[in-house]
Amino acid sequence: MKCRKCGHTAVINMREHKLALCEEHFLEWIPERVQRTIHKYQMFGPDDKILVAVSGGKDSLGLWDVLLRLGYQAEGLYIKLGIEEGAYSDESLGYVERFAAEREGAHFQVVDVKATYGMSVPEIARAKHRGRKVCSVCGLIKRHVMNRVAYEGEYACIATGHNLDDEVAVLMQNTLRWQMGYLARQAPVLPAIHPKLARKVKPLVHLYERETAAYALVRGIDYIYDECPYAVGATTLFYKDLLNQLEAHSPGSKLSFYLSFLRARKQGLSFGDQGRPELHDCTRCGQPTTAPDMCAFCRLWEDVER
Length: 306
Ligand code: Q46
Ligand code: ZN
Ligand code: ZN
Description:
two-stranded antiparallel sheet; Rossmann fold; 2 domains; alpha/beta; about 10% strand; binds zinc ion; binds Fe4 H S5
């Protein structure tokens, strides 16, 4: 297989784009594609300070690498969840540290959940009376920490490494159940509905997981290969498998499913009036919440501490 641009040996054949590229041209193509996505959805500009949520995985480190290569002011945030199974948290932090040490200007901060708040994410899940699942505790904590850090550090937005496969798997899940509220909120950009709630952007939404993995490999980015131990058996992985079968049968179908969803919404497809929630300041931490007194994050801690 030959590179379409120069005729040298291709390192990747992207059937979804009918495009094969050599190493050099693939490493040029990825940032160009990400830049087009940033521009298309007006995610941020060169003067904006961006907080990149990094986990040590290929997508978030790949995103950070691309943003730095494109000249953006992209700083990392690693949230140490305290997952001890397979030394997951220590290992993934190690990948982030090595990544940053190898690159000039790659600054990042770590928020250690246990050191900051008193318990790790799995510990909170275990202590919680109502036996909440680790992932739901984790999501709640991550959202709170990201909003806090973005607000205190005056970042224009939080960028996450969600790729096309992630988004399409969620889209399919939500479509099968016609989850109107979730469908209404699924977008490459989530605007800030309050100054203390960060704007969220996903610059990799047009990239297939296969492409982000190839990028990390060709760029020599060392990343944690294993999934978080709590992700094992997640329904999203099941949908990803299904969608891979569809993609193998008809290349490009994931991208067209996602883009036609966004287009349909732009053309008027509506999920009902989701309304604008009334927000109040949490009486404990001050972050905006729809609840009359404490936010879900603080209620969780009150429950655990009781
Ligand atoms: S990190 Fe956290 Fe995920 Fe691990 S505990 Fe679940 S939510 S699976 S993105
Ligand atoms: Zn080439
Ligand atoms: Zn609160």
